[in-house]
Specification:
Length: 425
């Protein structure tokens, strides 16, 4: 038998493990242990083949190249099947709550927000969150977000889909119930009051070094929000949940966050849409400019941990005439449509206390407010002070009790007692 025939025989023997009845066995079905065994066998046989080639000088370079290609393929399969290379995980959070608001019936509530993560490779991540929450007599199901991400490099990630609004720091980072230190959300960021909760589009985000510090950034293009023009009880507000754009104008924006200190980040965000008036409306064109500033400070002190956070947002939609022809039965109405709102919150937890009880308690105080344009149909200016006490039964389990002091400027105040137990999964 010639040297070439012997080489062909070795290659054929190696490849016989990958074929059965003329069909290739799918590598993905093999365990990592099996792939490692096949890999070791091929390496051993290639070493033997190299030794024979050196002795007989009869083996063809083409045969070696073929075997090396097969070896590289098996190495890639073995690497891809290692733990952590392909992973699916379910996480999220759940809560049960009680609220007793002055002037309304007291009620219990509950919700479950599973988050699904799938990473088919080191650079690709699929992330989605569903929301199941009780509302009146129904269970409301909502797709909170679904984003496909691709790691372009160490400082840049591309995201496509429905994602939490990068310009709304509260919603993107702090709103999950087991992270939020109080049972409810600040007025300005609850139910899309000023900033949207999510966007449908594309974004690029990441972190890059600045001298001895760092800066994080997000830039996005999304379906534009839609100004409500035909509802006598809500004209002038924004409808952000436009999964199909209602006008030929896109929302562009982003956020920059600079770490002044390792414990202190200051952020600025901007959203702009050249025209938010629906194509079917006879109201004048309006553009939206929404700006937001945020501050986030956390520091571990001798006795425990201090957490101070705040965000304030400003929305300007211009001076718009609603129902100009009177066909809607409530116009014409002119509204200088600018509004603002936000919150400032401080929390302290004596986590280094020698008392097992004290180091699980956390005191919280929050001021939040929203200021509406004069003549806005949806309500009046409102501010609140909320005092809360949290009990951390575990690192991801918190019981929250709060008393909310409400001040509706010109309306009926709605003080409230709130309770919530939230668990991160």
């Amino acid at each position: 038998m010639s040297g070439r025939a012997r080489v062909f025989g070795c290659v054929l023997a190696v490849c016989m493990g990958s074929f059965a009845s003329g069909q290739e066995v799918q590598p993905a079905k093999e365990t990592n242990q099996e792939l490692q065994a096949r890999l070791a066998k091929v390496e051993k046989e290639m070493q033997e083949l190299r030794a024979k080639q050196e002795q007989q000088q009869s083996a063809s370079g083409e045969d070696i190249d073929s075997l090396e290609k097969r070896l590289a393929e098996l190495q890639g399969q073995a690497s891809g099947s290692k733990p952590g290379k392909r992973r699916f995980m379910v996480t999220g959070f759940a809560f049960g709550s009680f609220e007793n608001v002055r002037g309304a019936d007291s009620t219990f509530n509950a919700g479950f927000n599973p988050i699904f993560l799938y990473s088919p490779s080191d650079r690709v991540l699929v992330e989605g969150q569903a929301e199941f929450e009780l509302e009146d007599s129904e269970t409301v199901t909502k797709l909170e977000y679904i984003q496909l991400s691709y790691l372009l490099n160490d400082h840049m990630t591309l995201g496509v889909g429905k994602f939490l609004n990068p310009a709304n720091f509260w919603k993107e980072r702090l709103h999950p119930n087991w992270i939020n230190k109080l049972p409810d959300e600040p007025i300005a960021f609850d139910q899309d009051a000023i900033l949207s909760e999510s966007q449908v589009g594309v974004q690029v985000h990441g972190v890059f070094p600045v001298a001895s510090s760092k800066m994080e950034y997000s830039v996005f293009v999304s379906n534009g929000g839609s100004l409500v023009t035909d509802d006598p009880g809500a004209y002038g507000t924004m409808q952000f949940d436009n999964y199909t754009d209602t006008h030929n104008s896109k929302d562009v924006g982003g956020r920059l966050g600079y770490f002044v200190l390792p414990e202190l980040e200051i952020g600025y965000a901007l959203e702009y849409d050249a025209n938010v008036t629906p194509s079917s409306s006879d109201s004048g064109d309006a553009k939206a400019v929404i700006q937001s500033v945020d501050v986030n400070f956390t520091r571990t002190l001798t006795g425990g941990r201090l957490d101070v956070r705040g965000q304030w947002s400003f929305a300007s939609l211009g001076n718009v005439v609603f129902d100009p022809t009177g066909a809607g039965g409530f116009g014409p109405v002119s509204l200088d449509n600018s509004r603002d709102g936000g919150y400032l919150q401080a929390a302290y937890r004596p986590s280094n206390s020698k008392s097992d009880l004290l180091n699980k308690l956390e005191g919280v105080v929050r001021y939040d407010a929203i200021n509406l344009p004069s003549g806005a149909p949806e309500g009046v200016d409102e501010s609140r002070v909320t005092l809360g006490l949290d009990y951390w039964s575990a690192a991801n389990s918190v019981f929250k009790l709060a008393y909310e002091i409400d001040d509706k400027h010109g309306g009926v105040d709605s003080n409230a007692v709130l309770f919530q137990w939230a668990v991160g999964l």
